[in-house]
Amino acid sequence: MVIRIPNWLGDALMATPVYYNLCKKEKIYLFGPSAIVNLFKSFPNTEIIYYEKGNIKKNLETLKPLKNEVGLLLTNSFSSAWLFFRAGLRQRWGYARDFRSFLLTRAVKTPRKKLHQRDYYLHLLKALGLPTEFKELFLPLEEEIINQAKILLNELKDKAFIVLAPGAAYGPAKMWPKEYYKDLANFLVKLGFAVIIVGSSKEKDIGNFIKNGKKEIYNFCGKTDLTEVAGILSLAKAFISNDSGLMHLAAALKIPQIAIFGSTDPEKTGPLNPKAIVLKKDLPCSPCFKRTCKYGHYKCLRDITPEEVLKNIYKILPI
Questions:
Q1: In a 3-state reduction of DSSP, which class is residue 42?
Q2: Pairing of β 257-260 and β 238-242
Q3: Which residue has the higher pLDDT, 173 or 68?
Q4: Pair type for strands 106-108 and 161-165
Q5: Where are the beta strands (DSSP E) in the chain?
Q6: How close are the terminal C-alpha atoms of the chain, in Å?
Q7: Is the peptide bond before 44 cis (omega within 30 degrees of 0)?
Q8: 3-state class (DSSP) for residue 197
Q9: What are the tens digits of pLDDT across the range 233-245?
Q10: What is the pLDDT of residue 319?
Q11: How far apart are CA 88 and CA 75, in angstroms?
Q12: What average pLDDT does this structure show over 132-161?
């Protein structure tokens, strides 16, 4: 079975129960952007194949040897169904979204009730008569990834550390103020922890702001790929972030975590982790699901103070 994984990191991680249920049944091919799909190389009975955005010719070449496989679309787009159709996959299964039903051999109606994104993917499996017994997020890591993380963390000399992820690709309505992250990092240093900041190169300046020259704070933004971040998280004492893809990475690794929500809804995209605490303010205007605050005050985020986050750290860690 060829599985077109979601394009967003968080969604791809929330779909890991799908991969695991199916790889226990048969060999699967996970097809997605290389930066994300490489995270899943350690799944059993699984082969990774790469989707290249905008390169139709290359994608068709990749799929050509798999024509006799069933194609399962976890993406909702017309273009992803069109690609499977053009590649000649004999069976193309997915949700009846984006006017693409005529391209699918089995089109499933989307669920009417509100579901967590993980359950949205599992609903598709159930409707197709596929196994759904396993429901937890799952991300096995090879020992090599852990060892590489230890090399990256060599400067810490085995000091306990907490990871902060101040970014969110969705926009500022998901991002806790950088000033708050800076204050929190200072609190954590005073408690005796090292602090590691992770994210893409886009968060490099925010990371430098939070670090503010302190040697106990390390800015790794833009210096690591996702697999390396996963290795780092597996060794961390805790993880604190906005509602982001990295939040779901920590959840899949079962790291003690605090997730800060602004414009989005934890009932739909909250971390599926028994070691997670979600912080959210129930304001009349939330959740608005906007990328920016239409009122400009970002009160849903600013009302969550560094002191409140610190108080909850004591709940997830024996400090």
A1: coil
A2: parallel
A3: 68
A4: unpaired
A5: 2-4, 28-32, 46-50, 70-73, 91-95, 106-108, 161-165, 194-197, 217-219, 238-242, 257-260, 276-279
A6: 47
A7: no
A8: strand
A9: 999 999 999 999 9
A10: 61
A11: 18
A12: 96
Percentage of residues of the chain with pLDDT beyond 90: 95
Q: Which phi and psi (to 5°) does residue 135 adopt? A: -125, -10
Look up the pTM and report it.
0.96
Residue 116, both tokens: 């967590």
**Residue 40 structure tokens:** 């899943």
pLDDT digits (tens, 9 = 90+) for 290-311: 999 998 899 999 999 999 999 9
Tens of pLDDT, residues 48-58: 999 999 999 99
- pLDDT of 296 reads 87
Tokens for 242, please give them: 């906005």
Task: Please give the DSSP secondary-structure letter assigned to residue 111.
Answer: P
d(CA 35, CA 246): 13
Alpha-carbon distance 5 to 216, whole Å? 38
Cα 48 to Cα 28: distance, rounded to the nearest angstrom = 9
- Which amino acid belongs to residue 130? L
Phi/psi class of residue 43: alpha, beta or left (left: φ > 0; alpha: ψ in -120 to 50)?
beta
206: left (phi over 0), alpha (psi -120 to 50) or beta: alpha
Helix 143-152 vs helix 226-235: crossing angle, to nearest 10: 80
Exposed e or buried b per residue across 36-70, where buried means at least 16 C-beta atoms within 10 angstroms of its C-beta: bbebbeebeebebbbbeeeeeeebeebbeebeebb
- Beta partners for 34? none
Q: How far apart are CA 20 and CA 6, in angstroms?
A: 15
Mean pLDDT of the 192-202 span:
96
Q: Scanning the structure block, which residue is given the tokens 């304001």? A: 283
- Residue ranges of alpha helices (H) inside 45-174 are 56-63, 78-87, 117-127, 143-152
